[in-house]
Amino acid sequence: METMIINVPETKSTLVKQLLKELGVEIQGQDRATQLAKEISAAIKPGKKPTMDEIVAEVRAVRSKK
Hints:
By secondary structure, this protein is mainly alpha-helical. The chain has three helices and no strands. It starts with 12 loop residues before the first helix and ends with a helix.
């Protein structure tokens, strides 16, 4: 399963959640999504672009935690 963070306008939040649930999407609380976003942001060095090998290693590390 893939993890995604989706920014939705407040006015459409309820509708989007209903549609996603009907499609079988598991919606995690904002706390987990915020935590993942902060972890990713902390790992990125300002001004330094990660190499493809670093990106692949990060993805594998995240997937192995599941």
